[in-house]
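Title: Prediction job returns without error message
Component: structure pipeline
Severity: low
Priority: P3
Assignee: unassigned

Description:
Job completed but the reporter wants confirmation the result is attached to the right record. Sequence as submitted:
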Amino acid sequence: MEQVLDKQALDMLVFSNLNKVPYGENIKEYFMNEFRKSPLDWDQFFKEGSWTELDESARAERESIIDGALVNFDLKRATLDL
């Protein structure tokens, strides 16, 4: 099962929760830690499959996709903080 991220939904989550990220903390790391605490809650950002149904390789792929999408937010913050 291919992991397809609903990027718009993830963007909305990040933008609406940026105020929770402590100043100076890496945005990507903050949200990756949130993902790792409760990956099942992040099922809403994927078109198919529940975390509980995924095998290890699909879980790793999902984590990698989220990690890659979140990198952009930290780059935007670095640009804005300059």
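Comment from assignee: result matches the submitted record. Helices lie at 7-17, 27-37, 56-81.
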